[in-house]
């Protein structure tokens, strides 16, 4: 009987020993979970600081350029920066309702704009800036 008691005690000792490491693992898993959100909070503060810096305009876009005679019919003859030339062309397009009704990215050129666009009847807004830059010096 003494051997039967010893055999019964050994498995019981193993079960209690097995429970203790399991408890340590769950405690170890909980501790890093609390640390992870603490790391994310400072990252949000850093991201908020970046947009606060003001953008500087590119000097090349702000340089006044003289339009050609064909472009001057639409924009005017005085030297203007590229940004202002583009704004004035868009004002002209909207005033004369030259934007395509279905695809707003297309511009239907009238007689003045056809001369600027190299004779093309329809031009995309992205191609427009390329064609207009050929008329600026």
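Sequence proposed for the structure above (137 residues):
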């Amino acid at each position: 009987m003494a051997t039967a008691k010893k055999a019964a005690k050994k498995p019981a000792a193993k079960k209690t020993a097995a429970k203790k490491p399991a408890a340590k693992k769950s405690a170890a898993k909980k501790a890093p979970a609390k640390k992870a959100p603490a790391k994310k909070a400072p990252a949000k503060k850093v991201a908020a600081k970046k947009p606060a810096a003001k953008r500087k305009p590119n000097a090349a876009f702000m340089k006044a350029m003289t339009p050609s005679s064909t472009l001057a019919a639409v924009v005017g003859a005085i030297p203007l920066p590229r940004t202002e030339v583009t704004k004035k062309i868009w004002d002209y397009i909207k005033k004369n309702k030259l934007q395509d009704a279905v695809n707003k990215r297309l511009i239907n050129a009238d007689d003045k704009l056809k001369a600027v666009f190299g004779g093309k009847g329809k031009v995309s807004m992205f191609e427009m800036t390329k064609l207009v830059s050929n008329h600026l010096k």
